[in-house]
Specification:
Helix content is 74%, strand content 0%. It is mostly helical and 201 residues long.
Length: 201
Amino acid sequence: MPTLTFEKLKTEKKEKFIQSALEEFAQNSYQNASITQLAKTMKIAKGSIYQYFESKKDLYFFLLNEVNQKKQHFIAQYLKEIPDDFFELLKKIYILGINFDKENEIIQKFLLNAQYEKNNTEIGNLYQQSWLQSVQYYKNLLLKQQANHKIRNDISIDLMAHFIVQSGRALPEILQIFPNYSPEKYIEEWLYVLKSGLQPF
């Protein structure tokens, strides 16, 4: 968590620091990200950063929480009415996520980097917590659909929730590998396969 010293910074200075920190972690792995370099970029003493955050790990956790909240808020503001159809909801969530990534390239790179940190013993538990929260969200949606007989009841909800989260998190990486591939087309094809497998016979 940020210290009181950081909270007392003027908004402009605070936002500049957050942006610089995001760029450092977006361009490097957690291990290679440098507090020394961040201080040089900000043109402040390295000790000042440790007056804002107790450690690099503390700063990283703060950034991850900040960008996740920002992305969730972006999606929520355009998703005021939640469709009853589960697959239509998924389509809206992923398209909004893509739109957010397009508008926030540094955040998108930072979040993509974070996915590769799941085996990092120092911060991997944070990735796991985030993963399980996402899985629980989709489990709740799937259970509701199952109760309304809109999806099959002979498929493991746990398995499908993990599959959906994995597919969603793979999307930014897929679009980097295939930059000319239409995100909307990918989502349509993915949902077609998912829907074909989940719908009742």
